[in-house]
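User: Can you recover a sequence for this backbone? Please restate the input before giving your answer.

Assistant: Of course. Working from this structure:
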C-alpha cells in the first residue's frame, strides 16, 4: 500500500519531537472502537491517522475493542469492524479487547479504594446527576463518600459477586466535587449490569466506565500517543488521574483532534442505528449510509477514502467538509481504472428502418479513452436499439442537439441516424421511434461529409442485458443532520430505482465490478442483490461536479 502519511500536522510534529527528545523509543498508536455499531467515514479518518502515523515512524498500531458495555455490543459489530479496517488496507499489530483486561482493571480499582481514592456510592444515576453541579456551581458530596476503606472493599467485592441489582450501587472516584472540570467531580468508575458479555459471557456483572477503562487499556498496551476527538479534551485530566493514581508503569499521553463533520451526513452511531432500526435504510451497508460498509457496497474504493482522509488533514479546529470532496476522490481514483461502457436507464425503442433485418454488426469501442492499455471491446449493432428517453424530444427548445423529428445525431461508436416517425400509445406517450441510418457515417472510418452536434448512447435491443439501476441522493437534507429531529428531515428522493439495459459484455460481471456508464456516471455491481439472473448497479457518483479542491499555501 502506498504511504503518503507525511502530510504535516500538529500531531505528527509532536511525534517527531517526542522521538528526537527521547521521550518515546517507539511510536505505538491504537484504533479503539466500541463494538456497538458499524464504522463510518469519520472512523476512517481516525483509522488512517493512527495506522499511517505509526507506519511512517516504523511503529505499531493496535486494533482494540472498547467492549465495556454489554448492553449495546455484539460480535457482529466486532467482525464488521475488523473487515472494514482490513478493507481500508491496514493490518493491526495487536488485536485486543478491553474485556481482556477486566481482572487487572478490577485490581486497579481495588488499589484506588485502598488509597482512599474511590468509594462505593448508593445514590441512583439520577441523584448523582442532580448533585454533580453546573458549570458555575460546585457539586454536592455524596453522603456515602466517607465510607471506610474496609466497607468500600467489602461492598465492591459484593458488587462483583452479584449481590446487588442494576443501578443499586456504583464505584466512584474520590477527586473533587468542586472542581471547575465537571469530569473530575467524583466520576463513576464501575456500574452494575447483569448482562451477558459477547467476550466474557456471564463472568462479570460489573463493568468499568469508558473514562476509567480507556486510559488503563492504553497504559497496559504501551500506547505512546492516544489520539481522540476534541470532545474528550475535557476528559484528559481524568485520563491522566486514572493513569497516575492506578500507578501504571507506562504513562501514555492523550492528544485531541477535530472529528470529521460532513454536509448531508450523520456522524453518530446512535443515529445511524436508529436509521437501521426504523428500517429507513436497508441495513448498515445501505449505499446511502456513510458507514464504511455502505460506502464499500456503493462502490467507493479504499484508495479514494485514504486519499480523502489525507486531504482533509488533522487540526484542532472543528469544521464541516463538503461531501463533494469525497466524491471528487472516487472520480479521480476510477477515471483510469473503470471501463467505459453504455447503459440505457430509461429505455426508448428505436427501429432503424433501412438497416437490413436479421443483420448483426460488431463495432469496435475503446474501453477507456484515457487509458488505452485497457484495449477495445466489440459491441453488437442491429436494426433495433434502445436509447434514453431523455435523448428524444418531439418539440425541442432551441439549442437541443439530440434526437427530434427530422434531426440527425451520432450513435456513440456507430452511425448517424435521423428520426422520421414517432409512435405513441393511446395515452399519447412516445413508445417507439422510426429512424434511418447513413452507412457512410460509421465511426472510425474518417467520414467528414457533414457534422452533427449531438452524440447519444444506446444498446442493441436484441443482445442487451436487463439491469436494475439505483440512483442516490443524500439521505439527509442539507443542514438538517444535527439534533434528534434529523429523522424528520429524511430526503424522500434519496433512492430512485430504474430498470433498463446494459451492453451484453456485462452479462458476466461480478459484485463490486465498477464501470463508467457513458453520460450517467460511475456504477458498482451491487454485492447484496445481484444474482446470476439479475444485475443490480449502484451509482457511485455522477460524472461531473463543480467542486474543486481548495488551493494550498
Amino acid at each position: 500500500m502506498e504511504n503518503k502519511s507525511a502530510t504535516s500536522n500538529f500531531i505528527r510534529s509532536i511525534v517527531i519531537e517526542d522521538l528526537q527528545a527521547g521521550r518515546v523509543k517507539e511510536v505505538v498508536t491504537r484504533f479503539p472502537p466500541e463494538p456497538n455499531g458499524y464504522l463510518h467515514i469519520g472512523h476512517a479518518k481516525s483509522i488512517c491517522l493512527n495506522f499511517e502515523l505509526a507506519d511512517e515512524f516504523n511503529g505499531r498500531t493496535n486494533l482494540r475493542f472498547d467492549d465495556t458495555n454489554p448492553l449495546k455490543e455484539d460480535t457482529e459489530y466486532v467482525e464488521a469492524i475488523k473487515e472494514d479496517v482490513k478493507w481500508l488496507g491496514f493490518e493491526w499489530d495487536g488485536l485486543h479487547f478491553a474485556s481482556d483486561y477486566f481482572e487487572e482493571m478490577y485490581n486497579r480499582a481495588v488499589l484506588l479504594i485502598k488509597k482512599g481514592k474511590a468509594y462505593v456510592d448508593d445514590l441512583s444515576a439520577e441523584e448523582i446527576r442532580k448533585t454533580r453541579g453546573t458549570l458555575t456551581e460546585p457539586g454536592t458530596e455524596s453522603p456515602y463518600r466517607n465510607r471506610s476503606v474496609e466497607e468500600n472493599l467489602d461492598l465492591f467485592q459484593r458488587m462483583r459477586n452479584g449481590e446487588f441489582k442494576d443501578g443499586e450501587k456504583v464505584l466512584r472516584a474520590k477527586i473533587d466535587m468542586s472542581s471547575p472540570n465537571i469530569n473530575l467531580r467524583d466520576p463513576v468508575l464501575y456500574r452494575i449490569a447483569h448482562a451477558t458479555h459477547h467476550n466474557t459471557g456471564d463472568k462479570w456483572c460489573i463493568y468499568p466506565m469508558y473514562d476509567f477503562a480507556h486510559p488503563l487499556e492504553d497504559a497496559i498496551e504501551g500506547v505512546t500517543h492516544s489520539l481522540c476527538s476534541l470532545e474528550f479534551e475535557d476528559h484528559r485530566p481524568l485520563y491522566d488521574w486514572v493513569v497516575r493514581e492506578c500507578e501504571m508503569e507506562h504513562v501514555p499521553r492523550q492528544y485531541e483532534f477535530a472529528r470529521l463533520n460532513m454536509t448531508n451526513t450523520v456522524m453518530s452511531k446512535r443515529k445511524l442505528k436508529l436509521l437501521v432500526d426504523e428500517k429507513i435504510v436497508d441495513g448498515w451497508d445501505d449505499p446511502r449510509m456513510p458507514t464504511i460498509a455502505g460506502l464499500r457496497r456503493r462502490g467507493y474504493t479504499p484508495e479514494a477514502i485514504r486519499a480523502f482522509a489525507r486531504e482533509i488533514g488533522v487540526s484542532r479546529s472543528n469544521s464541516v467538509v463538503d461531501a463533494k470532496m469525497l466524491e471528487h476522490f472516487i472520480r479521480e481514483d476510477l477515471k483510469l481504472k473503470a471501463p467505459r461502457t453504455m447503459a440505457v436507464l430509461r429505455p426508448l425503442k428505436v427501429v432503424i428502418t433501412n438497416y437490413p433485418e436479421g443483420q448483426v454488426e460488431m463495432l469496435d469501442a475503446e474501453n477507456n479513452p484515457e487509458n488505452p492499455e485497457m484495449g477495445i471491446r466489440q459491441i453488437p449493432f442491429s436494426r433495433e436499439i434502445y436509447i434514453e428517453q431523455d435523448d428524444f424530444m418531439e418539440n425541442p427548445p432551441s439549442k437541443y442537439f439530440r434526437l427530434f423529428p427530422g434531426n440527425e445525431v451520432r450513435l456513440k461508436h456507430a452511425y448517424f441516424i435521423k428520426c422520421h416517425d414517432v409512435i405513441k400509445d393511446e395515452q399519447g406517450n412516445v413508445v417507439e421511434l422510426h429512424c434511418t441510418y447513413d452507412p457512410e457515417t460509421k465511426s472510425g472510418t474518417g467520414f467528414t461529409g457533414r457534422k452533427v452536434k449531438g452524440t447519444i448512447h444506446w444498446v442493441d435491443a436484441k443482445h442487451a442485458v436487463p439491469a436494475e439501476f439505483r440512483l442516490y441522493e443524500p439521505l439527509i437534507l442539507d443542514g438538517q443532520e444535527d439534533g434528534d429531529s434529523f429523522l424528520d428531515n429524511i430526503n424522500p428522493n434519496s433512492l430512485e430505482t430504474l430498470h433498463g439495459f446494459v451492453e451484453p459484455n456485462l452479462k458476466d460481471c461480478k459484485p463490486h465490478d465498477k464501470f463508467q456508464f457513458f453520460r450517467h456516471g460511475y456504477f458498482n455491481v451491487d454485492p447484496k442483490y445481484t444474482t446470476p439472473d439479475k444485475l443490480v448497479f449502484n451509482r457511485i457518483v455522477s460524472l461531473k461536479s463543480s467542486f474543486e479542491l481548495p488551493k494550498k499555501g
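That completes the design. Residues 1-5 have pLDDT under 50 and may be disordered.
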